[in-house]
Amino acid sequence: MRVLGLDLGSRTLGVSVSDALGMIAQPVTTIRFEEDDYDSAFEQVQTYIKEYQIKTVVLGLPKHMNGDVGIRGDISIMFKERLETLGVAVVLWDERLTTVAAQRILIAADVSRKKRKKVIDQMAAVQILQGY
């Protein structure tokens, strides 16, 4: 069964999906939306939940380095609750440093800065899903 990984930002939503065995995560897309327009992000992510017949979603939970959940974390929690209305299980996953790890992987692969900017959210979603 495939699992969907999500990295929610204020204007982008990185999407990744596992293979059928749930062992390997791969990037899918970066959903772009107007700043803080989570309704649009929700509508767009439903397509991937249906397409991949997703039963479990792993959603990044941004935390401060001291472990506190701030405003961004609260937004992720609200997004989780909204996703659950679709009948999927949603797991919140600590996403601290996932973007940093994704950035390092892309730099090591000699991906240009311009191309990194286009795929960084997808790669962060991959890191979240792989961590799970």
TrEMBL record:
The record's GO molecular-function terms, alphabetically, read:
hydrolase activity, acting on ester bonds; nuclease activity
Indicate whether Flavoprotein appears among the record's keywords: no
Start and end residues of each YqgF/RNase H-like domain = 1-102
| Stretch forming the signal peptide | none
Alphabetized SUPFAM superfamilies for the sequence:
Ribonuclease H-like
Keywords for this entry?
Cytoplasm, Hydrolase, Nuclease, Ribosome biogenesis
Per the record, the GO terms for biological process are: rRNA 5'-end processing
Q: Which Enzyme Commission number(s) are listed?
A: 3.1.-.-
Q: Which Gene3D superfamilies match?
A: YqgF/RNase H-like domain
Please provide, in alphabetical order, the Gene Ontology terms of the cellular component aspect for this entry: cytosol
Q: What does this protein do?
A: Could be a nuclease involved in processing of the 5'-end of pre-16S rRNA.
How is this protein named in the record? Putative pre-16S rRNA nuclease
Q: Which organism is it from?
A: Amedibacillus dolichus
